[in-house]
Amino acid sequence: MYAAVPYNLSRTGRSFPPWHYFFEVTRRCNLRCKMCQYITWLQNTPTKVQAEGELTAEEWLNVIDQTVRWSLITFTGGETWVRKDFGEILDYACAKRRVHVISNATMLTETRARHCVELAPKRLGGRGLNFVGISIDGTREVHDEIRGQRGAFDKSMKGVGTLAETRREMGKSCPLIHINTVILKDNLEVLPQMPRAAAEAGAEVLNLLTEMRAHDLPGLGEADPGSFNQSELAMPTINVDRLDEVLRETMRAAEEAGIELRLPRTPYEELLTYHEGGYDLAQYDCRAVWTNLYVGAKGGVYPCFIQKVGDVRQNTLREIWNSPAMQRFRLRRREGGFAVCQGCCELEHKGYACETVCSQQRQETRQHSAHAK
């Protein structure tokens, strides 16, 4: 409802204060993932140069102070722990807001894992570190190939296991752990093995995500997002019949492993369709630009990564949130999707909510009938 009211009723493009912030604390990373939006930059920019222009810890603390009191902050990268001062930034955020961290966990040492659990709230939803998301894209050999580093899988799984074990030792339920896995040609055949691997490591949720290729386009973020055509995107393609078989097998494996499996917010058939040419964007809404705000490693501010609307070194988040540029972007996005929106995890199919409710009702009816018998 918080998103739906301004989305449906705002004529000017103004919205309520943001409730979810994404803070990209760095673009640097210790891995070289094939599908990464920064892979070309990482491969061709000297390490010493990569940190130039990043917001300092002091600047990040100032940005955190500008967030809404009841909001959620997601820290992402790059790899968040590449920053030596990330612990300081995380401490400050957890003392003020609900926090979520996305990492590859290869640098999640025992000391850092304990620190994370210490920052977790007593109850889910309280101030502190509520969630940690770990990116793992397959079994050992497959993951290491995708991530560009031998031993990456073992390091990541050790990080997940250490965090889960520390959480148990300290008698806490948070931070909840979710594994993020991108659906790729390279990992398709091992996806059914991921639910058990995630559950055994101590995660509660396995997220399957669609691959995006919009970041391959030169000038994305600075150029008008409407200037790009879908023909310019190197869309990911997978044999749909085989994808269907694998996804159904993965769903069964998740049920057996006792882990929650989450798919993109779209009808199942649409998920298959995406991998043979993309979505019909006319069937998708994006309410995220009415609730979410992104801050890049060097201070750029975005409603999403496809359009820059400001800079924290020049304006406050409050000034940017309902600025003319932000309002125009929201109204344009409400009129219809841009080609570069293909595969975005914030897309929501117009019939998805209805289908979900109907599916739940059918399931409840079957359960009621079974009990009656």
What does this structure look like?
The chain is α/β, with parallel strands linked by helices and 373 residues long. The chain is built from 14 helices and 12 strands. It has helices spanning 4-9, 39-44, 47-50, 57-65, 86-94, 110-118, 140-147, 152-169, 194-201, 240-257, 268-274, 317-321, 324-335, 352-372, and strands at 20-24, 72-76, 98-103, 128-135, 176-182, 205-209, 260-262, 284-285, 292-295, 300-302, 310-311, 348-349. The strands form 2 sheets. It has a 10-stranded mixed sheet. A hairpin with a 4-residue loop joins strand 9 (292-295) and strand 10. Residues 354-373 have low confidence and may be disordered.
Highlighted features:
alpha/beta; single chain; 373 residues; ten-stranded mixed sheet; two-stranded antiparallel ribbon; 12 strands; disordered C terminus; globular
Topology:
Layout: H1 4-9, E1 20-24, H2 39-44, H3 47-50, H4 57-65, E2 72-76, H5 86-94, E3 98-103, H6 110-118, E4 128-135, H7 140-147, H8 152-169, E5 176-182, H9 194-201, E6 205-209, H10 240-257, E7 260-262, H11 268-274, E8 284-285, E9 292-295, E10 300-302, E11 310-311, H12 317-321, H13 324-335, E12 348-349, H14 352-372
Parallel strand pairs: 1-2, 1-9, 2-3, 3-4, 4-5, 5-6, 6-7
Antiparallel strand pairs: 8-12, 9-10, 10-11
Short description:
Helix content is 38%, strand content 14%. It is α/β, with parallel strands linked by helices and 373 residues long.
Which residues form runs of ≥5 with pLDDT under 50? 354-373
Strand order of the largest sheet: 7-6-5-4-3-2-1-9-10-11
Please tally the β strands and state the result: 12
Specify the biggest β-sheet: 10 strands, mixed
Strand content: 5-15%
